[in-house]
## 1
Amino acid sequence: MLTEPLSALTARTLQNCGASAALDVAGGMAVRSPVTGETVATLAPHTAAGAGAAIDTAVAAFKTWRLVPAPRRGELVRLFGEELRRARQDLGRMVSIEAGKSPSEGLGEVQEMIDICDFAVGLSRQLYGLTIATERPGHRMMETWHPLGVVGIISAFNFPCAPWCWNAALALVCGDPVLWKPSEKTPLTALAVQAVFDRAVARFGDAPEGLSQVLIGGPDLGEALTDSTSVALVSATGSTRMGRIVGPKVAARFGRCILELGGNNAGIVCPSADMDMALRAIAFGAMGTAGQRCTTMRRLFVHESVYDRLVPALVTAYGSVSVGNPLSSGALVGPLIDKAAFVGMGAALDDAKALGGTVHGGARQPVEGDAAYYVKPALVEMPEQAGPVLRETFAPILYVMKYSDFDAVLDAHNAVGGGLSSSIFTTDLREMETFLSARGSDCGIANVNIGTSGAEIGGAFGGEKETGGGRESGSDAWRAYMRRATNTINYSRELPLAQGVSFDIG
Ligand code: NAD
């Protein structure tokens, strides 16, 4: 049971984080919580002129920040990680209020921010370039990595803060200021995170003004980042529809882009799979976060020999999963973000039925009244991969299909537009290695015996095809935030030209 109105809880949570924005601006941008459907704040959005001024401030910050030694830049991110640890409960609650996640998933998102800060601090001493053998005597060749410039970060509603931090923590140690345009559905989490960042800046002492800024508003502000030649890199997370607009615009001005777009992620359950493990992994992958993760499992191919064992058990799990208010109950499944998501889910289920699909679950649940949209997750047994199965519906729908031939199921697995995440459940070495090989999954993430969602920060995150091809977070994703210079140094008394070319001016 909540002991105070949601708007009061929201205001108190923001205050705990140190955020001071006015939350009741007349005629402002309404921020609605999916938990109850009520408006919890109205914010003053940025104007185009405000966005331009923020970009100018970021450009000025870059001129200073790029000259600060990288390990010192890492110190700011270390302090930020400390502040995030202190604010963990409040930020996690803010994610639950704004995105409707369970407390555990809200806290998990904050933990991801802490983890990437730790990673970035180490990285600040490891921005390595290569030394390369040259063909000329008395010469040395090397690569140097330099800060790139202002990084614009456009984020989606379903991960209101972690993807920002995957970008920001790396960008900051790489020497780049960040400008954040959060989803218009989750701006309060961004304001809370920015306030926590400001605490780290205050402790750091000499950071330039505007190293990290937030732009509140809709797609027009995203466009301001996309269109500005002062923004060197645009990292955009959201729908493939958005990426189709942002990608070409940034390319047209020769800017750099990281696109993290929609997925249509699948799992394959083979005859030798550990069925109990597969059941639990599929349940979390498909129903967790109410099906609103980019990595949510949306398609499942089950071998015909184990179909009758696994699928009835899954249907039972779908029937018994708890759906409820994430702030006042221990429910595993929270609300859909809004009415449009609910309508989209209903339309996809109707399409599936028209194609011969058998739908289990999917009904609206009477939680928190008419303005909130809670549903039972839906499992749909499909005769074949067609219609809605081929597209991402951002809701908890799992389409289940039977397969008999391993080679054919690999082709079916890859026959969709998205290329983000994938899983195979098997204890057969040949199947596993084939799935991970060039013949197998064409996704940016390919897992064995775990689900499609819940990636760790240490690996590079992102996907192929309509997922946009971007990579962020761990591994060598940092390189996107820096520019590479190849340097050749002649320490001899001769001037030999490469490839033996002669140019004798006498
Ligand atoms: P969305 O595309 O509606 O919005 C995402 C962001 O893009 C918002 O901040 C929005 O204001 C901005 N935007 C929209 N149009 C724009 C334009 N023309 N120019 C510039 N900015 C614009 O997505 P959403 O509904 O918030 O999020 C759900 C989608 O995001 C799903 O498709 C999901 O798969 C995807 N997603 C992908 C990843 C990933 O890492 N691949 C992570 C999270 C979400």
## 2
Amino acid sequence: SVPVALYHENVLDHYENPRNVGNLDKKDKNVGTGLVGAPSCGDVMKLQIKVDEDGKIIDAKFKTFGCGSAIASSSLVTEWIKGKSLDQASSIKNTDIAKELCLPPVKLHCSMLAEDAIKAALADYKKKQIPKDG
Ligand code: FES
Ligand code: FES
């Protein structure tokens, strides 16, 4: 395992005080919800984004039922994507998350969960913007 001393203080804080835990209104047209699971461990992550009319992410919340690394990954990405465009958010890679959190190889799938959750939330938001006929 990674010695705690190697963690940057800021990063350790994502484990101890996760940011942006909570829910956004799923029925809001400007909210995209992503719900993903990790097949290898059964952990589940829900990540939601709220987008303004300029296509900027103005809010993000998560609920993660999983290990500490998954919770820290979701906390970190909700901070990263706030203020970003949809394209910028979709370009976040799990390797960026893993690097920032100094995740060991066995915990890489935890950061993958966060990347997948962003992608799923973006896809849900985009789907909601397509006008429904009739
Ligand atoms: Fe069970 Fe991640 S393996 S919490
Ligand atoms: Fe499965 Fe972290 S999400 S061990």
